[in-house]
Structures are given as structure tokens and as C-alpha cells.
Design brief:
0% strand; mainly alpha; single chain
Length: 109
């Protein structure tokens, strides 16, 4: 979805940058979004306040709220799916490869 929305606006997504955590992925305010998501997922209580303020200043409070809600929802789904051992969909293996991620053997499609 992210790739499609960027394509519609004439931008390009660089997903490997998202996984590596450096550089720009092509998403406007991507570094601010990534910092807030990372602080949420990693439960980094030292980084969260600063990341939250940066996201609010750049994107607004409502958008910062949505970022946190989406990150929390995905984190909950990931933990649940890992806990029950649901394999990764074969349709996403190409994206995982493009991002430089390795799908663990027990989650291979």
C-alpha cells in the first residue's frame, strides 16, 4: 500500500532503508515516522517523548496519534502471529528479500 501511494504521487519507496534504519526511504517525514514507530515497538521510554514531539511538530498531533496506534496494532498482530506460529505469506517473501530481511525457518511459507 505504501509503495502504491508513493507511486501515485510520483515518489519512490526504498524499503531496504526502512529495515536498515538509516537514510531516507522516500516517505515524506519518514525519519520522524520511523523514530516514533521504533520508540513504540522497542518500548524505548527515553526516546519516545522526543520522537513524539518531533512527529507532532512535523505532522500534527492527530497524525502522531495515528502513527502510534498503527505501530501498536501491528506489534500486537506480530506478537500474536509469532506466538501461534503462523507462517509468513508467500506473497511477502519478495518484499522481505528486497528489505534484506531473513524469514526464520519456522515461519517460512
Amino acid at each position: 500500500m505504501l509503495r502504491a501511494s508513493l507511486h501515485e504521487t510520483g515518489q519512490e519507496l526504498h524499503p531496504r532503508v526502512i529495515a536498515e534504519g538509516c537514510g531516507t526511504c522516500g516517505v515524506p517525514a519518514g525519519n520522524d515516522i520511523r523514530a516514533l514507530v521504533d520508540a513504540c515497538v522497542m518500548r524505548d521510554f527515553d526516546e519516545y517523548p522526543d520522537a513524539r514531539v518531533r512527529a507532532e511538530l512535523r505532522l500534527g498531533r492527530d497524525t502522531a496519534d495515528r502513527i502510534v496506534m498503527v505501530a501498536a496494532n501491528f506489534e500486537m498482530m506480530n506478537r500474536l502471529l509469532d506466538a501461534v506460529g503462523v507462517p509468513v505469506s508467500a506473497t511477502t517473501t519478495g518484499l522481505a528479500t528486497e528489505m534484506g530481511l531473513v524469514i526464520p525457518d519456522h515461519l517460512q511459507p
